[in-house]
Amino acid sequence: MCRRNAEDISCSLRHSPIMIIRVTAAVIGGLVGWAYLAMKPPPPKICGSQGGPPVTSPRVQLSDGRHLAYKEKGVPMEEAKYKIIIIHGFDSSKDLDLPVSQELIEELRIYFLLFDRAGYGESDPNPKRSVKSEAFDIQELADKLNIGSKFYLIGVSMGAYPIWSCLKYIPHRLSGASLVVPMVNYWWPCLPPSVSKQGFKRLLAQDQWSFRVAHYTPWLFYWWMTQKWFPSLSIMTGNMAIFCKQDLEMIKMLSDGPSVGQEKVRQQGVHESLYRDILAGYGEWEFDPLDIANPFPENEGSVHIWQGHEDKIIPFQINRHIAKELPWICYHEVPDAGHLLIYDGNLCTTIFRELVLG
Q1: Contact 71, 80 (CB under 8 A)
Q2: Helix and strand counts by DSSP (H, E) for the chain
Q3: Which residues contact 345 (CB under 8 A, 6 or more apart)?
Q4: Coil, strand or helix at 329
């Protein structure tokens, strides 16, 4: 009996390394599989596809086959004196409703073109989305709709990085541009470390980490935004600490009105709309803002930056520095204003007047 037990133990010991290897391989394989699924975004629900959201807006088809949905407002295009393309920001769409009075529209004869950026609303996602691709989306949209050889741009918050791209790649198409509370990339080479650090440290810790992940390990970003162990981007977790007093008052006022089209913003997938937006804006750029030459050397147009001094989302120090280094930019730092300054009717009117008449 003892002899048989000893043989069983000896056999078990001989086979135990093989069992350990098999168990270890199974565990590693399981972890790799889990990690792959955790990092892999779900496929988009493309508008007009089987099982996808319906197409309810006019759209143009781009040369790569994608569609951009758009909306026209103001006076008819053929009657317009000024044609302005408005570029929405993060978690927004072509249904962005700015407080532009009908009186101003009629007085200045303004035609507005708004569109859903790639992956937002009813515009097809762009798996190759980048800062550069945004500029050529705008140019092709303008050409498809025949709005003319030149146009004005207004970009709000995240919608301002496409304007930097337009200033770099298609300056000959612009009559003027306004970057309103424009996002900043804390890894732009043109930023002195002291300026970048000063602005970055004003952000909430969870936002600092989210932007680091987007910049340094973009392949991990989907996992980071969906994991439950650490807080991710504050604006998506409902953390109101990112807003200053003026912004909170504006949010309260805006909440009394209808939120048109908000249910469509992320309908094709949060990764295709919001996450790709962050990855493009906070990733590696193909150029530095200081590489951009003055698009209006004969003062035939103007470029403006509008920045709220109390803005807790976009630090004023960085946009102030950029404007100082690019003296052809008209910099407007608004005291007692936050990130939502464009929703102030008087300020919004001033922004439009300065763009086309300044």
Answers
A1: no
A2: 13, 8
A3: 99, 101
A4: strand
Which single residue is written with the structure tokens 């913003």? 265
131 closest CA partner among 96, 166, 155: 166
Give the side-chain half-sphere CA count within 13 A for 186. 26
* Enclosing H/E stretch for 86: strand 82-87
Question: Distance (Å, rounded) from C-alpha 114 to C-alpha 153?
Answer: 10
Tokens of 228: 């439950």
Per-residue burial over 19-40, b if 16 or more Cβ lie within 10 Å, else e, is eeeeeeeeeeeeeeeeeeeeee
What local confidence, expressed as pLDDT, does residue 255 receive?
87
Q: What is the pTM of this model?
A: 0.89
Provide the edge-to-edge strand list for the sheet that holds 82-87: 59-61, 67-74, 110-115, 82-87, 151-156, 174-180, 303-308, 329-334
Mean pLDDT per block of 10 residues along the chain (358 residues) reads 54 59 51 54 94 96 98 97 98 95 96 98 97 98 97 98 98 98 96 94 95 97 94 90 95 84 93 97 96 95 97 96 97 97 96 93
The CA-to-CA distance between both ends of the chain, in Å, stands at 102
Please tell me what DSSP assigns to residue 305.
E
Helix (H/G/I), strand (E/B), else coil: 294:
coil
Q: What is the DSSP string of 115-182?
A: EPPTTSTTSPP-TT--HHHHHHHHHHHHHHTT--S-EEEEEEGGGGHHHHHHHHH-GGGEEEEEEES-
> Which is it for strands 67-74 and 110-115: parallel, antiparallel or unpaired?
antiparallel
**Per-residue model confidence (pLDDT) at position 1:** 47
Q: How far from 306 is each of 19, 34, 46, 236, 340, CA to CA, in Å?
A: 66, 45, 35, 24, 11
* Contact assessment for residue 57 and residue 124, using Cβ atoms and an 8 Å cutoff: no
Q: Are 57 and 71 in contact (CB under 8 A)?
A: yes
CA distance 140 to 135: 9
